[in-house]
Each structure stands twice: as C-alpha cells, then as structure tokens.
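Ticket #630: bound-state structure for zinc ion.
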Amino acid sequence: MADEMQTPTTFTIATPGRLTFDDENDLMTYVLRFGQEQGMAITKGRTRKLNNALRSIDFKCDRGGSYRDRRTRVKLRSGWTLRAINNEHNHELDNDMSGHSSSRRLDAASRQTVAVMTAAGSQPRQIVTTLRQTNPAINLTSRTIYNERNRIRQAQLDGRTPISALMDELARTDEYVMDFRVGDDDNITHLFFAHHKSIKMVKLYGSVLLMDCTYKTNRFKMPLLEVVGITGSWKTFFCCFVFLAAETQHDYEWAMQAISTKLYDGLSPPITIATDRDPGLMGAIGRIFPTTNNIICLWHIDKNIVSNCRRDFNGDEEDWAGFLGMWKATVQSLEPAEFDNTWDRFETSYLTTNPSAVQYIKATWIPHKERFGTPWTRHFLHLKSTTTARVESAHHTIKSYIKVSTGHLRDVQAKICLAVENQDKEIHAKLMNDRIRIAHSHRIHMLRNIVGRVSAYALEATLKQVQRSAEANLSPCTNHFTTTMGLPCAHYILHGTQGTHDFRLALNDFNRHWWIDDSVYTPDIEAAEPEGGHPDIQPIVNHMLERYHQWTLPQQVQARHRLEEIAFGPAPVIHDPIIRRGRGRPVGSTARHNTASTQRDPSAFELAERTPRLCGRCRQTGHNVRNCPN
Ligand SMILES: [Zn+2]
Ligand SMILES: [Zn+2]
Ligand SMILES: [Zn+2]
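RESOLUTION: The complex was predicted; output attached.
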C-alpha cells in the first residue's frame, strides 16, 4: 500500500484519436461524451489565443497528478484537431462518478451566494458556513468554494491576463478615473486610480490632502501611495491610490501629475498637503503643486523624536518630559523670531547633557521648520492635518481589506474598491444624520441659522468657542484658529455678542468645507439632463417622495412648509452676496472665488430660503420687528 502511494500506478486509456472538427461545440460534445464513456470527468483547462482568435483549448481529467500530466490539447488549424498529449492516469477510472469534484457542483443560488460573498471580501470558511445554514444537506468543502471562486475569476478574465483585465475594468467603466505608465518592456510601472465616489468627495473636500506610501500590499512589491482627505464631518475619505515602481521624485511627480489632471481639473489645487519627511514626495509636490503648502505632520516628527532621543535620557522621565515640553513650546511659537529664540534656548539647555538628542533634531527637523512650525503653518487652512495620524489609520483600514501581501494588483484594486464603497456609505450616513438630527446642545439662538446646514462636527467645535468666549481670561486673538480650521473663533463670537442678544452665526462664517452640500445626498440626480432648455426636476421630485416617507412627522411638516413656499410663494429672487466684515473671514475664501465656475447651482431649498424675509410681527417685507411701523 505504502509503495503504491509513493509510485502511483498509471492507468492507460484509449486515446480519443486524432480527429478533426469544424465546430467548437461538436468538439466539446465529443470530448465530454468520450470522458463519460471512459469514466473520467473532463474539464476545460487553459485556452490560448493568437491575435484575439482562439487557437487551442486544453482538456484535462479532474483527478490525479499535476496539471501537465493529464491534459489533452486541441488545436485550431483548419477546423479543430484533437490531439492527446498524455493518456496515462494516476488513478483508476471510475464507474461511479459522484466522487469527482465537478460532480459536487453548486446550484445556481449557491453560486450566486459565493459570487456575492466573494465580492464582499468573505473568507471561504464563512461562505461554507452560510451555505450550510441555508441548505444543511449541501455537499461541499472549502475546496468547492475555492474552485467556484477560481471559476468566477477565470470567467471574469475571459482569456485575458489579470493585468489587462484590470486595465479594461478601470478604463471601460465610469466607476473610475485612471492613468498608467508602462516601462521599456511594456510592463506596467505606474497605475493611478480613483473611485467615482472619491472624485465627488474631492470636489467638496479637496482643500486638504494627506499622502503616504504603504508597503506589502501586492506580490510585485510595488509601494502603494495612499491619498486621503477630510470630510466636513471630520471623517477620513480615500481620495486616490497610486501603485509606483519606486519612490524617487520622478515617480512621485508622475503621481502628482495624475492627481492634478485627473482629480483637480477645473478645481483650485489643494491648499495643504500633509506628508512625511520624504524628499522625493516633497520635491514632486513642490513642482506640480507650487502654490500648495506642503506640511510635514508633527505626529511623524514626534514619533521619530521619541524613537531617536528617548534612550539618551536613560529612563529619567522627568528630564525627558522637560525636553519634550520645550520642543513643543518651540514648535508652537507664534512668530518666526520667537521660534528661533526658543530653539536657541532649547539647544543651549540640552547641548551639554544630551548632545546627540539635540543634534538629531537640529540635523533632521530644524531644516524643515517652515513645514511644521506654527509660525509658518498658522497662515493657511490645514484642518489639523499637522497633528493627526489619519493616513496611518487609512493604511490600517486598507490592509484589513487586502489581508494578504501576495495578491495581484487586480485583487488589491478590487479590495480597495470595496473599502472605498463601504467608507462612502459611512460618510453618507454621517452627513445625513448631521442634516436631520440636531443635538439638543446645538439648539441655541446663536446657531439658529446654521443648524442642519453645517456639519455636527463644526457645530460642536463652534460651541467650544462659544464657551471659550465667555471665559474671563480669554487670550488675545491670533486668528490662528479661524485661519487653520475655517471656523469662527471665540473672539469673533465675543465681538458679535457685545451689545446685542440677537447675534447669530451665518453660513459664511464657516469655510465651505463645513457646509452640508446637497449633492452628497443626491447621487443619481446629477445626471439629470436639461430637457427643452429647462432643468428636469422630475427625478428630484421622485427622489424626494421616496425619502419623504422615511421622515418623522415633524420633518414631513417642515418639508411641506418649504414646498408650499416654493409652489405658492413669490418667485425666487437671487441677491448679491452679503459683504462681510473683514474679521473672521474663513481662509480659502479667495480660493473659493476661483472655483466659482465649477460650483453647483443653488438647490431648490436654498433658493426658497433666499425669498425676502418677512417681519416677525406683521408678516410684511422690507423691514423687521425692530423697526416695524405697524
Ligand atoms: Zn502622518
Ligand atoms: Zn480669535
Ligand atoms: Zn412688521
């Protein structure tokens, strides 16, 4: 018995003989019947194509040794010629065919389940469990699932290599924008792609980006540049992904060029891009986005300082805390001169006791001070991208989808697609929630004009400023908060509330980043083509009716009022923008001016809100309660 296992007996069968067929179907029928008569389950193997025409098909018995040992090939010359390559089998031929895996076929419903669950990233083990729950009598193993997945994969590839299938999939749908580059041997060296959901996000939230490379995502060991942004609800969104051949400035320049032309076409370039201290990436950003502020994220700097300097303090926690405290004070100086002075004092304080720690910071980080020091970063919108580890958690999310480091780019891309779509659902749900659920603490007079119109995160941050404005020892305004966050600061609020109880924050006190944009909720409506010169509102009406039934009664009442205004009220009038006081102007408002051409037309609800305001006492226009003549 043991001998037999080491050198399996071979069984020779009668060869089908060298036959010629005119038609592929005739050939197939013949081969299958031949197999059945001989007691073999025959499956179709590899196909070869030349100039897109089918040239040969391999057939094989589904049991026994390696693939090479059990194939039969047919070649197309003039008609199909069937030729046996190997007619020796390492197993006895069956009388009962049920043992063959091809007989352990899944029914259509189960195959559908496998396809759906595979697309959703489920493991074969989980799929087996699900199928057994649905049908306890089902005859299957994990191997059945692997086979079925392989079959699906082969069907999708349809004779193409995975890379050409991937290129087709990216290029032929509206789901993606993509760009790629090939090397001297026509091998792919760079691949850029962005999901259409991400493109929409960039239009709304493209002011600040964060970029970083992650590794071990694919079998070609290509680094993957991940680009993420920040939504108005303070969530991270995936912006785009770029597989790179290497990490030179040259490679990064290609990636930046793709981002610029494919994502920012017609938009203002990003105000801020946060990166690691990577000379190639920083150089590329400088060349392709010369007006963008490229900052180095302090989170990385601090992490590096800890790993390089801490050992220098030999466990003296107090001394180490003092060192970090002084570094922090340096970074958070307000003016460049103050930064330099604080650094000088810092250097002198530790030069004799901890020379290598000081030298490390001096050589590694001080040359880049303008990319992270507050004196320089406080003059533009960066949404705290200086201090958060957003890209790192995005890496983590992506890796939790990719799971293995040995996949093809096509596998990685499919997993990324899944991650982006799931993330988009979360972002969407969060914004929807911000729009209709107003927290009790946000129902205060000052926020009355903006609740439901800016994100809950922005309201919460503003509420903190409202509380700060009431503090006795409020420090003088540096404009730092408003400039970097695009939100009204405590000083602005204090100024507004002085001498009046009727101060309300306005939408324009908030950077557009925080506005809840209607286009987020209405994905299918953008496509509505104007018909006969008029924009078609029917899809909007349908969409609204659909949602109307899901709303609570108070929401339905409110919506009804608004619709009455549109249907029966005075025709909408569009007014000039309000000229704002210079103080508290959100940074980026000049940039917004440039993008005016790409902005959406106001929605019906917005138009309705711009109809003349009525007096609270007599319901007439042209004056308000305070100067009401009636
Ligand atoms: Zn970082
Ligand atoms: Zn202020
Ligand atoms: Zn009145």
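RESOLUTION NOTES: The two ends are 110 Å apart (CA to CA).
TICKET STATUS: resolved
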